[in-house]
Write a structure and sequence with these properties.
The chain has 544 residues and is of the alpha/beta class. It is built from 21 helices and 25 strands. Helices cover 32% and strands 20% of the residues.
Length: 544
């Protein structure tokens, strides 16, 4: 078959685990599929009239990088207003909010707030009341599971005391039953969110297009989107019609507490729908919240007596939902951060044999997302269940500290904080480990994340002490988390994740070799280009 495209590079890492005898420096593509892999000399034989040749010179080519956990559409709501993620003190938070309050917007908005900036000061609406004037205000905390509203926003939402929810959510109140402004989990935040003026479809489409182009420039060729809605479908369809979908997107709608089999049936009907580069392929569930706001599910309470309850008030209903989807060959991905939460998910998945036909079970991938603190016995159980681990190294390196003085570690105590993000232990057990960012909870750029996974500290900050350094990944393991293991985490190893004949022609080109470059240097280096379906999505100007 005459190739449409030949890509040449001095170094090509195929990530297929196979010896090639000689250095691979050329890949041929036809119809979006890899048709040949070989040397530069081989490429001279493949080339025909009309074949486009892209010579990347000294660049390093790998399979396309795939972020295993992102929220691009949901993230549009979480990234409105002033970016507070860089604020490390309460004074800095005040200054940023005060500056933002001078704009003409009807609401004061902000996002990315790290509770560590408050030190020992409780999160309270007064922080916003002091700077918001007469405006209603709502800012999202970095974890995406909590927000802080001011007095005016609470008044508009009719929030005057405690609320009852069908899922683990809370309007936090003081000892007198007066709301503090802190809202925990989606149902509580929605009480205020529904009163905030919404962007138009065209505004959201433009913002999403810009975001996805930034993803491509960062080196990403695909992403596993851990939320999906009717709006997501409409946005992806509109972008694809305009030729502006530069990544391959695998999405998963949420299955929430309070749903029943009729709801699950409707969710199941969406599986397989989509377009050329996007499709609904899994179901996302939550079994707990976050350590940082006290809504994780732990064996023992945190230091504030919190994080003791599951997200599903009746966790057996979560297990029933998993069985419903698994029996129909539908993959699931469950958010589980605390040790008790992870154990419950493992219990549910271990119950599937004998309920789900063996052929269906063997072809369906089930995942646990985040896995922030677990004891040895739970790490070992992953191997026997074939459950995939999906983790975010920068949650560790950006939001916790080696001396345990951060909010996450303080809440857990030293013993549980020492079990932080056990990436290496899971790999040593032979577990498939997909890596991602959880954007907008943390930055999406994959090169710093690959570096942080090896360093166990924030790249570019050699003065920082590594956090649980024994959990550092090798350079190969970190790259696998974005390539071969990302494909396996989606059940797509037969069609992607390596540069192999017959697989999709999705590639990422690097300035420096991710397998041999010092992590700090890699994090600061450039991405040369990305290809999806053999089509260039981004290329540095000097090579375009």
């Amino acid at each position: 078959m005459t190739p449409d495209l030949i890509v040449l590079a001095d170094t090509i890492h195929t990530m297929d685990g196979q010896p090639h005898g000689q250095p691979v420096q050329a890949v041929a593509v036809s119809g979006g599929v890899i048709t040949a892999v070989g040397s530069r000399q081989d490429a001279q034989q493949w080339q025909q009239a009309g074949t486009r040749v892209v010579d990347l010179g000294s660049a390093i080519l790998t399979p396309g990088l795939v972020d295993c956990h992102i929220h691009p559409v949901f993230g549009l709501d979480l990234t409105i207003g002033v970016d507070l993620s860089g604020a490390s003190t309460l004074d800095e938070v005040h200054a940023l909010l005060k500056s933002e309050a001078t704009n003409d917007a009807g609401w004061l908005r902000g996002w990315g707030l790290n509770p560590n900036a408050f030190g020992t000061v409780p999160l309270h609406r007064s922080v916003l009341d002091d700077v918001s004037g007469h405006k209603p205000a709502m800012i999202r905390l970095f974890d995406g599971h909590s927000a802080l509203a001011n007095s005016r926003a609470l008044e508009l939402a009719g929030i005057h005391g405690r609320h009852e929810f069908t899922q683990a959510a809370e309007v936090v109140c003081d000892s007198d039953g007066v709301p503090t402004g802190l809202l925990l989990e989606a149902a509580a935040m929605e009480l205020v969110q529904r009163h905030i003026p919404q962007e138009t479809f065209s505004q959201r489409k433009a913002r999403l297009a810009d975001l996805l182009r930034d993803f491509a420039r960062s080196g990403l060729t695909g992403g596993h989107i851990m939320d999906h809605s009717d709006e997501s479908s409409a946005l992806f369809q509109a972008l694809e019609a305009d030729g502006e979908l530069p990544l391959r997107l695998r999405t998963a709608p949420w299955c929430m507490p309070g749903s029943d089999e009729s709801n699950w049936k409707e969710l199941a009907r969406t599986i397989g729908t989509g377009g050329r580069r996007w499709s609904v392929e899994a179901i996302k569930l939550f079994v707990d919240g976050t350590v940082d706001n006290g809504t994780a599910w732990l064996y023992e309470p945190d230091v504030h007596g919190q994080s003791t309850a599951p997200f599903w008030p009746r966790p057996e209903e979560y297990s029933a939902a998993v069985r419903y989807f698994a029996s129909r060959g539908i993959p699931t991905a469950t958010h589980a951060i605390g040790d008790a939460g992870v154990e419950h998910v493992l219990n549910a998945l271990e119950s599937l044999p004998g309920i789900v036909p063996a052929d269906v079970l063997s072809q369906t991938v089930h995942r646990i997302e985040h896995i922030e603190t677990v004891p040895d016995e739970l790490v070992a159980r992953f191997k026997g269940t074939r459950v995939v681990a999906s983790m975010q190294p920068t949650h560790c390196t950006h939001y916790s500290l080696a001396d345990h003085s951060d909010n996450w570690s303080t809440r857990l105590g030293a013993e549980r904080a020492d079990r932080a993000w056990r990436c290496r232990d899971l790999r040593e057990e032979g577990v498939t480990l997909g890596i991602g960012s959880d954007w907008p909870i943390a930055p999406f750029e994959p090169l710093p994340i690959i570096a942080d996974a090896q360093l166990r500290r924030r790249s570019g900050h050699p003065e920082q002490e590594p956090i649980a350094p024994a959990q550092a990944l090798t350079a190969l393991q970190a790259l696998e988390g974005y390539t071969s293991h990302a494909a396996k985490a989606a059940g797509l190893w037969n069609v992607s994740g390596s540069i192999t004949v017959g697989k999709r022609a999705d590639f990422t080109a690097f300035e420096h070799d991710p397998l041999t470059t010092a992590p700090d240097e890699l994090a600061a280096s450039a991405v040369v280009g990305t290809f999806v379906d053999g089509e260039i999505q981004f290329m540095l100007e000097r090579l375009a």
